[in-house]
Amino acid sequence: MLAIFKKEIHQFFSSVTGYVAIILFLLANGLFLFVFPETSLLDTGYANLDPLFNLAPMIYLLLIPAITMRSFADEFKTGTMELLSTKPLSSWEIVMGKFWSSLLIVIISLIPTLVYYLAVRQLSVDPQLLDNGGIIGSYIGLVLLGAVFTAIGIWSSSLTANAMIAFLIALFTCFILYNGFDALSKIPAFAGGLDYYLQMAGIKFHYASISRGVIDSRDIIYFISIIGLMLYLTKLSLQRKLWQKG
């Protein structure tokens, strides 16, 4: 697994694409947080990072599928997947190597956003009034959200040899799981009963819960379950393709 992990990290940062993806993520966040007046932290009058944590999931919808879309798609396209399968590696080791390397890249893209926290702290009249617990919870939520989107992206890439199709499948699936259930719960027919359970089925509900600074075991279990399911589906997809090739 470590060999796959190192290969993926090296491959990502050996091309300009990896750097461009991270720079665009940070640039988009910077523009929305400090330039565009509708979402600017400077115009809200409050020292908090809520705009960042509300915006980042939407940017993740584009960033993470772009990071993961080539994970397996390029292996299938170039024929190196068959060569990789001859190595003394299990399907799980291949999948987990791809997953952890992509997740590390997502976390690396998130680390520079700590500058925004320092900026807000400096701009605050009283830094002690900052909701540090909520900010820490929101960062934990973003890491878990990134892990879920990464698992979905890896699964999507295992379905096709076309990286663009993998990107679109991941984008659609992430959007549905994040926003779909929440939007469905707002249909009047589900009001007063099913609406709450529909919200609980979606990622947005659990991300918002953690972002309040309260780490609930139910939210953690939810994220881990979704990640585990998507990685298991990736393993099945990989085995099916290798069996068909064989």
From TrEMBL:
<feature type="transmembrane region" description="Helical">
    <location>
        <begin position="139"/>
        <end position="156"/>
    </location>
</feature>
<feature type="transmembrane region" description="Helical">
    <location>
        <begin position="220"/>
        <end position="238"/>
    </location>
</feature>
<dbReference type="GO" id="GO:0005886">
    <property type="term" value="C:plasma membrane"/>
</dbReference>
<dbReference type="InterPro" id="IPR019860">
    <property type="entry name" value="Motility-assoc_ABC_perm_GldF"/>
</dbReference>
<keyword id="KW-0472">Membrane</keyword>
<dbReference type="GO" id="GO:0140359">
    <property type="term" value="F:ABC-type transporter activity"/>
</dbReference>
<protein>
    <submittedName>
        <fullName>Gliding motility-associated ABC transporter permease subunit GldF</fullName>
    </submittedName>
</protein>
<feature type="transmembrane region" description="Helical">
    <location>
        <begin position="94"/>
        <end position="119"/>
    </location>
</feature>
<dbReference type="InterPro" id="IPR051449">
    <property type="entry name" value="ABC-2_transporter_component"/>
</dbReference>
<feature type="transmembrane region" description="Helical">
    <location>
        <begin position="12"/>
        <end position="35"/>
    </location>
</feature>
<keyword id="KW-0812">Transmembrane</keyword>
<feature type="transmembrane region" description="Helical">
    <location>
        <begin position="55"/>
        <end position="73"/>
    </location>
</feature>
<dbReference type="Pfam" id="PF12679">
    <property type="entry name" value="ABC2_membrane_2"/>
</dbReference>
<feature type="transmembrane region" description="Helical">
    <location>
        <begin position="163"/>
        <end position="181"/>
    </location>
</feature>
<keyword id="KW-1133">Transmembrane helix</keyword>
<keyword id="KW-1003">Cell membrane</keyword>
